[in-house]
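Record minuted for everyone:
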Amino acid sequence: MLKCITGLLDWKKGQTLIDGKPLASLDRKELWKRVGYVPQAHKMVFGFTVEELVVMGRAPFY
C-alpha cells in the first residue's frame, strides 16, 4: 500500500490524492517534498546515522 501511495507501484483500483490533487499531477520533486519513505529490509548494512537520514530527507527543499 505504501508503494502505491508514493507512486512506486500503480493501484489496481482507485488513486492517490495528496492535498486533494491526483498523484500523477505532481512532479517528483513536489511529491517528495510532501512524502517521506524509508523502506525496511532485514540484514541490511546501512552506513548512515539517524541524523544523516533526517538531513537527507530535507534535500528536496534545497
